[in-house]
């Protein structure tokens, strides 16, 4: 009886190099197909040395249990296009998609677009940061570019288009936090006097009284207002998406909150109700605050009118968000604790409120401590 030796299967990761015409082909076996035949990964190289290097990379990845990327796959530009259309556009908000698209088209493609996706190195990414900084990009913009590129590479690794993320090995520039503008009670009075008769007077008064974000104020609807209970439910926001203003739900559950209507906030809502009863606008979105033409308020229009009032009042030029900061400061100075203020502002974490307004509490605590010492007859330095 003749015994035939069974042919030994080649191990996963074994490879070879051969010449085909004028190019060298590096080939590595990457497991087996369902029909029992070997599955190969190949890459064409210009030189034998390049093919040897490619084979070493493939073998190393297989030993580590990693996926072999498609060496003849995407450039940075083609992958970013695919990532935006098939991953971001279908899974994220339109505004987020537009933000990423802006970073890709204006900041990343002009510098890295033609490079092979998997051949980009941390040094290439660092050079990108330096280049856009020389073009006038701020540290915040560079951070945004870094987040965008890092996210795109994360998905590329998941789908086997790259085997490592070069962005994760780079350092983000240090961001200098801009000093926030807070108005004193006296300055608020000056501003309100300058706003008399302005189309945004009620809107600004309401913001100062509640601390809501501009999108939450302009997106407040009448079905969220309970005049009997004197309260509002904050659950939507008005956002600009492209050329349109769209009413959208708030992102997180903690942003959804019920707030009291008292003083200036109640006065502003009642004034708008009386105005709408006279004007009889169509108001398809059922909004509380409408511009002089009966349409939703555009954030740019609001800020422009605010800037005019600030100039008349001879106050520092700033935006609507500073009114939110001022409202939070007044709440803390009035004795509300961080948890209460955090709920008013719709912050996702109380730590965020503490980081933004901790200095106000420090000042209030020192004042309380001094009063306590005075009651004991002790003078503090």
Number of strands: 8
Instruction: Write down the CATH class of the largest domain.
Output: Mainly Alpha
Please identify which CATH superfamily of the largest domain we are dealing with. Answer: Intergrase catalytic core
User: Total number of helical segments?
Assistant: 13
Order of helices and strands: EEEHHHHHHHHEEEEEHHHHH
Major β-sheet profile: 3 strands, antiparallel
The share of residues in extended strands comes to 5-15%
Look up the CATH topology of the largest domain. hpI Integrase, Chain A
Q: Tell me roughly what share of residues is in helical segments.
A: 40-55%
Distance between the termini: 107 Å
- The overall pLDDT, averaged over residues, is 82
If classified by CATH, what would the architecture of the largest domain be? Orthogonal Bundle
In one word, what is the shape?
elongated
Strand order of the largest sheet: 1-2-3
Structural class determined from secondary elements: alpha+beta
Main attributes?
alpha+beta, DNA polymerase, domain 1, 3 domains, 3-stranded antiparallel β-sheet, 50% helix, 12% strand
């Amino acid at each position: 009886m003749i015994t035939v030796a069974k042919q030994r299967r080649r191990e996963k990761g074994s490879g070879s190099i051969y010449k085909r015409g004028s190019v060298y082909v590096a080939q590595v076996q990457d497991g087996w197909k369902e029909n029992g035949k070997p599955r190969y990964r190949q890459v064409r190289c210009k030189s034998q040395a390049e093919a040897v290097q490619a084979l070493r990379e493939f073998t190393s990845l297989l030993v580590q249990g990693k996926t072999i990327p498609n060496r003849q796959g995407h450039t940075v530009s083609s992958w970013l296009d695919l990532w935006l259309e098939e991953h971001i556009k279908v899974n994220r908000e339109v505004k987020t998609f537009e933000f990423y698209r802006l970073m890709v088209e204006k900041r990343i493609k002009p510098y890295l677009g033609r490079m092979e996706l998997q051949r980009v190195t941390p040094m290439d990414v660092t050079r990108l940061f330096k280049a856009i900084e020389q073009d006038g990009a701020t540290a915040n913009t560079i951070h945004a570019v870094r987040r965008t590129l890092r996210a795109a590479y994360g998905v590329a690794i998941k789908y086997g288009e790259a085997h490592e993320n070069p962005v994760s090995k780079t350092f983000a520039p240090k961001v200098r936090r801009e000093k926030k503008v807070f108005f004193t009670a006296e300055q608020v009075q000056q501003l309100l006097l300058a706003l008399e008769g302005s189309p945004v007077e009620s809107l600004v008064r309401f913001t100062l009284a509640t601390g809501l974000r501009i999108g939450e104020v302009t997106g407040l609807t009448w079905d969220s207002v309970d005049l009997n209970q004197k309260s509002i439910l904050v659950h939507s926001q008005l956002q600009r998406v492209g050329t349109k203003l769209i009413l959208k739900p708030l992102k997180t559950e903690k942003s959804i909150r019920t707030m009291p209507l008292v003083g200036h906030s109640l006065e502003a809502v009642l004034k708008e109700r009386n105005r709408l009863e006279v004007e009889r606008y169509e108001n398809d979105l059922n909004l509380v605050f409408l511009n002089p033409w009966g349409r939703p308020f555009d954030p740019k229009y609001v800020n422009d009118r605010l800037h005019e009032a600030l100039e008349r009042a001879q106050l520092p030029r700033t935006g609507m968000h500073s009114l939110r900061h001022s409202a939070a400061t007044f709440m803390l100075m009035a004795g509300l604790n961080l948890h209460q203020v955090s709920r008013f502002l719709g912050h996702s974490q109380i730590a965020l409120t503490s980081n933004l307004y901790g200095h106000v509490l420090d000042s209030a605590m020192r004042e309380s401590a001094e009063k306590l010492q005075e009651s004991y007859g002790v003078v503090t330095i």
